[in-house]
Amino acid sequence: MELSKGPSVALCLVLSLAWMSVPVSHCQTLPPPDQGPPSTGQASRSIPVQNTSTQEQLPRRIFGIIPNYRSNASLKDSKPLSAGQKFKLAARESFDPGTFLLSGAIAGIGQASNSMPSYGQGMAGYGRRYGASYGNLVIGNTMAVAVYPSLFRQDPRYFRRGTGSAWSRLGYAMGQVFVTHGDNRKTQFNYSEILGNSTAVAISNAYIPDDRSASDAAVNLSIQLGLDMAGNILKEFAPDLHRPFRGRNQTPPQPSRQP
Fold first, then answer.
1. Which residue, 138, 135, 111, 137, is CA-closest to 125?
2. Is the pTM of this model over 0.85?
3. Which of 40, 71, 117, 252 has the most CB atoms around its CB within 10 Å?
4. Which residues pair with 158 in a beta bridge?
5. Residues with Cβ < 8 Å from 10, sequence gap 6 or more?
């Protein structure tokens, strides 16, 4: 992402903290994912059994915007991805409409705070910021989801914990930035996340004219890791937030009457 010292950094940090606080306050009162309504009487037998596959459990977009293709409901029930599948996953996130909208939002924040003054203002300045923001997202996805996971044989997906207290799940989600699973399903240090984002920050110096010192790069990397933590928290708790709304829109079929 296009990040620099100044108001834009503060705003990004505020947004990430807001993302972190929303799920924790709500999910403490929600039932665990496998808890359903009690089944008694004939009426309950007329309700079809819910599909519990990964595709049905997890929303493909968080809040209808943020791509969520890398979430997986269970490590136990998953299969390792091939290198080709990892590149396809990175491409799917990079070209998702939500990624284009996110790039526009980041560019707007940079425009409002006048980060990267060399880009200027007006539509021309916004276009430059948009291109840089989208480029950062695509490079970050390619490096952290495809290239390094293929080299280190690590799984780029986020595997939800889904159970336990809100605080334990929060710690788990944040920790997955530094700890991941290999293709052999063993726990490993998340080289893909750290090196992928470090490479993306280094490459961005080729097309971002301002804030190119080593200290600026360290700040940008720290902020990117913090935003990825916020993204993991959304992946962990968003299905719990979606569940009550999904339940309201589902009307159980009426039992058929025998002639």
1. 111
2. no
3. 71
4. 71
5. none
Q: How far is CA 85 from the centre of its chain?
A: 18
Q: Pick the closest to residue 189 from 201, 171, 172, 175 (CA basis).
A: 175
CB atoms closer than 10 angstroms to residue 69: 16
CB 57 within 8 A of CB 239: yes
Per-residue pLDDT tens digits of the chain, which is 259 residues long = 444 444 444 444 434 444 433 433 343 333 444 444 444 444 444 334 334 444 445 667 777 777 778 888 878 878 899 999 999 999 998 998 888 988 888 888 888 888 878 888 889 889 988 988 898 889 989 999 999 999 999 999 999 888 889 999 999 999 999 999 999 999 999 999 999 999 998 898 888 777 677 887 888 888 788 888 988 898 888 777 765 545 444 444 455 454 4
> For 117, which DSSP code?
G
Amino acid of residue 64: G
Read off φ and ψ for residue 256, nearest 5 degrees: -70, 145
Please report which residue ranges of the chain form alpha helices under DSSP H: 7-27, 41-45, 54-57, 83-94, 97-113, 122-141, 148-152, 166-175, 191-204, 214-248
**Residues 116/216, Cβ–Cβ less than 8 Å:** no
149 by DSSP, 3-state: which?
A: helix
Interhelix angle 214-248/7-27, nearest 10 degrees? 30
Interatomic CA distance for residues 20 and 75, integer angstroms: 23
